[in-house]
Amino acid sequence: MDVALRNIRGNIERLFDKNLTDLVRGIRNNKDNEAKYIAQCIEEIKQELRQDNIAVKVNAVQKLTYIQMLGYDISWASFNIVEVMSSPKFTYKRIGYLAASQSFHPDTEVLMLTTNMIRKDLNSQTQYDSAVALTSLSCFISTDLARDLANDVMTLLSSTKPYLRKKAVLLMYKIFLKFPEALRPAFPRLKDKLDDPDPGVQSAAVNVICELARKNPQNYLGLAPVFFKLMTSSTNNWMLIKIIKLFGALTTLEPRLGKKLIEPLTNLIHSTSAMSLLYECINTVIAVLISISSGMPSHNASIQLCVQKLRILIEDSDQNLKYLGLLAMGKILQSHPKSVTVHKDLIMQCLDDKDESIRLRALDLLYGMVSKKNLMEIVKKLMVHMDRAEGTTYRDELLSKLVFICSQNNYQFVTNFEWYLSVLVELTRIEGSQHGPLVAAQMMDVTVRVQAIRHFAVAQMALLLENAHVLATAAHRNTMLEVLYAAAWICGEFSEYLPNIRSTVESMLRTRPASLPPHILAVYVQNVLKLYGRMLGRAEQSEQPEDVDGAMVEVNQVAELIVETLPAFASSADLEVQERATSALQLMKTVQKLQQRGERLGQELQELFSGELNPVAPKAQRKVPVPEGLRLDEWINEPSDESGDEPDAGVDYGVEVFVRAESRAAGPAAAERRYQPTAEELQKSREARVHEQTHNPHYLKGTVQSSSNNYSSMAGELADTPVQQLDLDVPLRIGGFANSDDYLKMQNRSYKASKKNKKKRSKKKHGAQKSSSEDEAPPVVHEVSVGGEMPEGARSSEDEKDARPADDPHRALDINLDEPLAPDEVLPVRAHRQPGRAPPAAAAPATTDARDRHKKKKKKDDKKRKSKKEKRAPEEERAEPAPPAAAAEENGRKPEDDIEFWLSDMPATATPAAAANPAGTAGPADGAGPAGTAEPVPPPKENGEPVSNGATKQKKHKSSKKSKKNKKEKSGRLLGYEEAVGISTPSHEVVAPGLSDLPDSRLQPLAENDRLKLLYEPRASPTDDDRVTVAVLVTNKSPEPLADIQLQLAASDAAELLEQVEPFSLEAGASRELLLPLRVREVTAPLKLAASVTSHTESGGDTLSFKLRLPCTALLVGQLDDKQLFSDLLAGDRLTARATCLVSEVTDDFNQVLRRVAFWGRHTVVEQIDTTASLYSRSICGDHVCVLVKQLAAGRLGIDGKGTNQQLLSNVVDELRAIVAS
Amino acid sequence: MIKAVLVFNNHGKPRLTKFYHYYNEEMQQKIIKETFQLVSKREDNVCNFLEGGTLIGGSDYKLIYRHYATLYFVFCVDSSESELGILDLIQVLVETLDKCFENVCELDLVFHVNKVHYILNEIVMGGMVLETSMTEIITRTEEQNRLEKQEGGLAAAPARAVSVVKNINITQQIKDIKLPDLPAAIKDLKF
Questions:
Q1: What is the pLDDT of residue A64?
Q2: What percentage of chain B has pLDDT greater than the value 90?
Q3: Mutate to test the interface with B, among A12, A21, A208 (most CBs of B within 10 A)
Q4: What letter does residue A517 receive in the DSSP assignment?
């Protein structure tokens, strides 16, 4: 009674507390000083939290949750939140858990207090208590919680309430992320949930597995059949979408899966009315098409269907569909550009869309649709858009895309560079663009690389310089000033094309030094000199003496002007400008002085700047051969500690001093800053530079100035670079800025002309479309010099092979470069990276107690598994690839292996079956569906078939005994099938016919002199332990008979000769095989035994001493009597040793290599799947060696070994590597 | 995966924030602010997908949003989610709110953010879609509310009475969030 009274009193008191509603209202009423009000409230809350009454605390926590949303840290109240969470009342509990889910995170300290409380809630009788805990836990689960609660959540997976099951399923994903070890034990149950009667649970399971598989698709290839079944049977669109998305990821790994998918997906595309599903289907079909586009007959119908459907989406009035349509189009573009190009009109139309996202998407598509023929047209449109675009970001995007479109593939589509240059010049008028440097770089690049254009370029640049004030006065943030840099340099460098040098010099000198950024000024100064030199040279070379005088007067005037103006430059605040101006000034004065003495200096002056600038090949730097005697890895001076982090910064600073500054965009204001660049700025500049360089790989960056000074010395090397020269047959217009439109008109005119001619021949041409057929590309007016400079002594190397463009679909297929192992590989040592995984190290400091528990669990699992396996023995005999799994088993700390384990533990192990199945049908992962493994699953074309197949599978799953029987029946067939692949399985000791590249015996030369020749072959005895018989074939090479031949073996600790060989005689040319039975005590390292052969002839005795080498592999017995043993080994924890190596440049066919390894390395091939094989061998002392040989990309071969003896294994793997490499 | 669910009004005031990935409060506010700036400058008749959130996600992430009267509902999702599917999910969320609050308006969200959280928890859990059927979501929410009421019993009666009195003051300003019809094209996505 007393308690009740107190409760009521507490509640009445609460009436006067501020509740959440009051708080919200208060905040709304105090809009002006919200912060102050909230601070006040927080003080109140702190008071409330000190009270004992739980209701008050709940109220406070509720308010805190709201305040948290407004951005206030409430971590100080964590403990109170836990208090509220632990309340027995659902109402309070819910509030507490909500607060926790909003404010806790895995590192929250109080979480360690919550373990038992949460466990209690999870196991609560009320399903909503558990549900609330599950939901909240998903937001803040930590590694510790995941480890400690995994089991409880696992139990909930089989709860009777679907509501809890589905939440538990989703939470499992979070647990996996935090506690990877849980994946393996939990996976079978999770997989079972795919068949859950409740659609919600099913969908959740699909969700989780899709999420897992998205990060490590290989591991889940095996589930493909299950998902396939779901896909063909389910009507839940959400689930279908997830599954179809998953298939999109899987198909890149297994193209054959894709082929199987096309049909049902196409059906879905035709049948579904849900746009979201339709869209995902199209996406996956595209992924499939990309994945199988190599070497397959193109699925034109499917592409057409996709493109057609996408067109419908794009034409839809719904902007969302339009957007997605364009997005998907972009994917098709990568593999089937032609199909997309057909819809150019539509995409152009989208450029006009009012929605910026859509415009940007359309822009992305454009680059793939350009051809020589329509480039001008497209660029014209882009320019129009640029004029109209209101946002600068969009305009910038347009600009960079335009440049990118034109410059892609070495200006592949640009036929007329005059046009392109005039486009660039027109681009300079774009205000407020961030891409000034890009335009400038393009101008320089084009001028340098297209010789024929230089004349035109110089004229245009001169005009630009004259009109510099237009650019300079534009908005101060305008990076377009950069083009002046390019213009000045181009005019100076190619001054021979400049008709009126004087005016250009004057326009350069007219600039107010303050109005330009220093790096541009520096270029001005330098190039004024160049121009002056050219002018002087020209004047002196004039033929008529009277001209010389006239010209000289002009030159002198210019010289005067330069000398007058340069001091203004010399007083620049910028070091670079200052220095250049000062030295230029001195040079000018000297020249003037010498001139007054009547000396002719034009030639000399020009030589200062002579030399041809050529583009440098992108790989030139890499190709510089290292001079002999130069060791790059050696320190010149031992690095001292304090300078450790300096070098980077130092280098950068140097670059700034001698080369143009980091951000030309920064304008004059940057001058101050440049003396103390902060780390951030340096970083930025570095990025900017990298960015620029990636955009413009052919241009020699930053060294323009210095290299032009060094020209004379380099000229010799440079001269021999072939640069294509093209005659220019288009009249030049130098009068003013060229108008890019004129070129378009010109092109169109010539088109029409050619059309007219063509029309006579072909009637089927629509005149409206200017461009309709691929073959009539416009004539190439200019050509780009594509090749770049290479340093002397550069060799063409292999890495050049991989010059595929980034959007090459094959790149996407090039997956397992460095990925250690795929799930279908036997014997995984390392495996896939897990997504966002807390490193296992985090889990490592687990309490021993927890680990013990874990181990126990595992052991139990083991037992279960073993008993299962025993039942399945017959089926395992056909080299069932339980091994991968098994390998994982022994090392609990490797979560990655776990996935593999559970995957391959699925009875029929779909992955290998699928991979090995030449018909390309994925065998069912579901062990109970053995039919699928043996027989190709009927193609989905036969409607209903796969479904019914699936149905039987399901039935079988329930009565697994039946299926086992089936398996037994099938196993014979499978064996036969496996041999058909053409691997010799040494366990049969049969070398398949046609494999003649292996010798009949393993006899290897042992020793030889002029009398005797010895060959030997160690033969490890499979039956007797520690025995090896070395067969030695002794041949008498001498022309006379040999008598009393005796072979002696020096005594050794490692091996002992059991039986002495009797002396014997040999006729000339005869040979005899000796058998030396040895007992070997030490098998883990190669043996070297000293031995000698003595022989006698009539003329005297002779001794041949030699070393009998027994490599580790010689002491191996490549025999596997029972494949069960192999799987058991890998499943057990006996294989503690590991060794791995990688052999590069393996040119031989994988099968050849495998046979060689099996033969010389004395291994038996347990299983081969495509280019992966598992091998087994054991030493005569009973150590097991399991090896996985896998072909990796780029001619590399991976050898992964597991064994019971580390030393032996390492040596064996080493020897195998030698065998592979031989 | 869904990385965050944000609801804010036309002025960028957060009405519900749910992050399925931990960010500290300061970062959360920055994300809300950035998202608001990105979303609010878009007109109503443009597409509902948005790339370019720099703070949350990265290149793999997209913002998918819907604008209802005064509220923006924004989901930040990665590429494993179907864009159109999430749009439908937002619709499911809003329709559920509409059912639970009987003509939901911004003020309902302001004063009952807890309830909104509970409803969202029935739809999305830990960044993954839990349930898409509206009936199921509503059943579960109501059952829990009933449980709460039972627990409240007599003891909570005075508090309830007071809060009812307090709630009377709520102005009935913007009592209608109009639910626009789904575009016909995606309406037929069945759950």
A1: 92
A2: 41
A3: A21
A4: -
Label residues A603-627 b or e (16+ Cβ within 10 Å = b). eebbeebebebbbbbebeeebeeee
Angle at A480 between CA A477 and CA A482, to 5 degrees: 110
B185 interfacial to chain A (CB closer than 8 Å): yes
Q: Name the helix (H) or strand (E) containing A136.
A: helix A127-140
Which residues in B lie closer than 8 A to residue A203 (C-beta atoms)? 129, 132
Find the farthest-apart pair of alpha carbons in chain B and give their distance in angstroms, rounded: 54
Q: Measured between alpha carbons, how far is A593 from A587 in angstroms, rounded to an integer?
A: 10
Say if CB A1216 and CB A1155 are below 8 A apart: no
DSSP output for A652-720: HHHHHHHS--S-GGG-TTHHHHTTS--HHHHHHHHHHHHHHHHH-TTS--S-HHHHHHSHHHHHHHHHT
**Residue B121: predicted pLDDT:** 93
Pairing of strands A1071-1080, A1055-1057: antiparallel
The pLDDT tens digits for A987-1024 are 333 333 444 455 667 777 888 888 788 888 887 777 76
CB contact under 8 A, A280 and B82: yes
Backbone dihedral angles phi then psi of residue B181, each to the nearest 5 degrees: -70, 150
Q: Say if CB B90 and CB B112 are below 8 A apart.
A: no
Task: Give the full edge-to-edge strand order of the sheet including A1064-1066.
Answer: A1064-1066, A1042-1049, A1087-1097, A1100-1110
Nearest CA in chain B to A91: B148
CA distance readout (Å), A1116 to A883, A1122, A1128, A1192: 20, 17, 20, 26
pLDDT at B15: 92
B34 interface with A at CB cutoff 8 Å: no
What was the pLDDT predicted at A437?
Answer: 87
Residues in chain A: 1222
pLDDT for residue A693: 59
Query: For residue A108, which amino acid is it?
Result: T
Cβ contacts of A633 within 8 Å, gap of 6 or more: none
Interface of B with A in 64-123 (CB under 8 A): 80, 82-85, 87-88, 110-111, 113-114, 117-118, 121
The radius of gyration of chain B's CA atoms, rounded to the nearest angstrom, is 17
Report which of A1086, A1088, A1083 is spatially closest to residue A1107, judged by C-alpha positions: A1088
Select from B16, B20, B80 the Cβ nearest to the Cβ of A214.
B80
Contacting A residues, span 8-47, partner chain B, CB-CB under 8 Å: 8, 11-12, 14-15, 19-22, 24-25, 28
Contacts of B64 in chain A (CB under 8 A): none
Which of B50, B78, B43 is closest to B65 using CA atoms? Answer: B50
Q: Find, in chain A, the residue whose alpha carbon is nearest to that of B51.
A: A357
**Which pLDDT belongs to residue A827?**
26
Those residues whose C-beta lies under 8 Å from the C-beta of residue A963, and which sit 6 or more positions away, are A907, A927, A928, A929, A930, A956, A957
Distance, in Å, from the CA atom of A699 to the CA atom of A686, rounded to the nearest integer, reads 17
The Cα A844–Cα A1196 span in angstroms is 34
Residue with tokens 């027995």: A88
**Measuring CA to CA, which residue among B40, B35, B46 is closest to residue A360?**
B46
Which residue in the block uniquely carries the two structure tokens 């010059």? A803
How far from the centroid of its chain's Cα atoms is residue A185's Cα?
A: 31
DSSP result, B130-164: ----HHHHHHHHHHHHHHHHHHHTTTTHHHHHHHH
Partner-chain contact A237 B148, CB within 8 Å: no
Q: Which residue in chain A is spatially nearest to B89 when comparing CA positions? A: A238
Below-50 pLDDT ranges, chain A: 295, 643-675, 697, 699-735, 758-776, 796-996
Contact call for A208 and B136, based on CB within 8 A: no
Rounded to a whole number of angstroms, the distance from the CA of A529 to the nearest CA of chain B is 47
Single pTM value for the model: 0.55
